[in-house]
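We append the chain.
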Amino acid sequence: MKQKNTKNFGTRWGFILASVGSAVGMANVWGFPNKLGSNGGGAFLLIYLLFVFIFSYVGLPAEFAMGRRAGTGTLGAYENAWATRSKGIGKAGGLLGWLPLAGSLCIAIGYAVIVTYILKALVDSVVGTLMTADTAAWFGEFSSTPFSVVPYHIIVVVGTLLTLYLGARSIEKTNKIMMPVFFIIFLVLALYVHTELGGTEGPNDLDLGHGPGLLLPVGDGQRYDRVRCVFVQGGGCGTHGPADGAV
C-alpha cells in the first residue's frame, strides 16, 4: 500500500494560504494603522510598500531555495547552507539555527494566549454572555481569575500540536478553512468601520507628505482607537476609545 505523503503541500494555493496565515499577525491589526497615522500617512505607506517589495523579491525566494535544497526544517536548512563552505562551519550553522527556532517558539507561546482569549470570546458570544456584558469588565474578570481559561488554552495547544504532527497536508487543509473565514471577518469589520465608525473620512486624511495622516485624531476623537476597539474589545470602548498609544 502506497504511503501518503504528508511532508509536502498538495497544492500551490494551499501553500500560499499557509504562508499568508503565518505572515499576517496581530501587528497588522494593532500596529500598522498606528504607525501609518503617526509617521506621515501616505509617505509612510509608500516606504512600507517599497520594503515589502524588496523583502518579497529577495528574501522569500532565498528562503524557499534554502528550504527546497535542504529538504528539512530550520536546523537542517541552516546547517546545509553553512556546510557549503565547510563541514565544520555547517555544524556551527546548525547551532545558529536554534535562534530563529527559539524566536518562533516564543512567538507561538504569546499567540497561544491570544488565541485562547479569542476562543473564549467566541464561545461567550455564541452562548450570549459577551453580547450583553460590558467588554472591559468581562475581560478584566476572567483575565484576573487564576486558571480561568486553562481549558481553552489546552484546546488551542493540543489542536495546534495535532495539526503540526499530521504534517503539511493537515496545515494546508486547516488553512483552506481558516484563511477564507479570516478574510470574511475582515471584510465584515471593514464594512462596519466604513459605515459606523467614520471610516469614510479616512482617505481624506491620507497625506503624502505632511499632516496628520490616516487614522490620527480627527473630529470627535481617535479614529484609530475606535477601529482598534472593534478588533480587541468588540466596540465597547465608549466614544473616544482608550488612551492614546494604548495597546
About this structure: The mean pLDDT is 74. The first strand starts at residue 217 and ends at 218. The CA atoms of residues 128 and 163 lie 30 Å apart.
